[in-house]
Amino acid sequence: MSPISSWFHHYANPGVFLRLVRPCLLPLGTISVILLMTGLIWGLCFSPADWQQGENVRIMYIHVPMAWLASACYVALALCGILSLVWRHPLADRAAIEIGPIGCAASALCLVTGSLWGKPSWGTWWVWDARLTSMLILFFLYLGHITVIRAFDDSFRGQKAAAILAIVGIVDLPIIKFSVQWWNTLHQPDSISLTATPTISLSLMWPLVLCTGGFTLGAITLVNTRLCASLMERQVQFFSRRGK
Amino acid sequence: MVALFITLIRRELRLAFYFGSDTLGGLFFFILCSSLFPLALGPSPSLLHMMGPGIIWVCALLASLLPLERLFAADYDDGSLDLLMLSGLPPAGIALAKIVSHWLTSSLPILLTSVPLGIMFSMQTKELLILLGSLTLGSLTFSLIGGTIAASILGARRNTLILPLLVLPLNTPVLIFGALSSYAMQIGASITTNLSLLGACLCLALPFCPLAAGAGLREACR
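Output (structure tokens, whole complex):
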């Protein structure tokens, strides 16, 4: 067995995973709350208003992290799907159950905040713009995943079906990413990229980076807390059944 | 192998013929659903001409959804799926035969009826031909994607809710390109672009969907 896959199967053991992850939860949560508080207070109270959009621009500090989180959670779901189908990794299936609702909430919040932002700046709550539509489809994919994974009496089969769905649905992500370039409609193109200088002012970008980091770490903490809770729940069930 | 495949398709067609009312259900749904739009939108010919291709596309998608629920479930419930799995045909072959028979029994009649419906929406002959071509490519993809989902959720508890929730979002790209190609003549855009994209969707779905559906069938009969 190669070192990577032996490492990989070592952490498939729920006990090992719990011993490793549980002590990290509190520090991770604290860091994410600190980042989030700093970013939100800076962004909402101290950063300058946009010269064109005025105070409305502050919606960005929730909207952009949520959009990022919705896409990132779906990538995580698809990775879990591959891990589960190819290597039959037992933790991947549990993780997929816990990631789904968080990603779904993120995509719903992204749509809601986007719509609240669209009303003052575009003059409409909703347009059938490519990016908005593809994000809406991502939301439906999340709903489908959440329903499927819980729809079988045999939970194993639900996890397999959900894994297939998660992998197939990944085609939506490049559509979301490139929709602003392929169909140049109402939604603005990306302002921040890894390769080019940002087209957003630094005084707006730093709080945004802090918020994104805070929300991401917060989501990681939430997923792992839920994962630990579900693993412990299973242990309790197992022991109570053996006690009878 | 090929003989088994053809036998399975013939069995499906014969079953569809015996249970004619089930088979025609999707077709009547398609006709009724499309003829509701003129009632709701008003009888203006120019409006209907503008919306016709879109209406036909959406109704074809919805109608192809109806027989999917029983596509594998009927055989799964009475145990004939287990026998089919033992017949020597690989699961992907069984899935492909089922998908082909789904297309032959539900989408082909819809394709044929879309011609008179298109005339009723006052479409020109050339527009009708483009609609037929794009709908052929699109309905094949609908059958492939729908069959895959139907196979992988075989035996789920809330089957009726899950099927549309999974199939409709995954079919949106096909719907978008298909409807765009049918509108191309009206708005004066290039027809071949969207037809090529539709063909690309089909080429992508054709090898992968039967394999995924076969995996779903194998899980279901485990």
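The helical segments of chain A are 3-10, 14-46, 60-87, 90-122, 130-149, 155-168, 172-182, 202-243.
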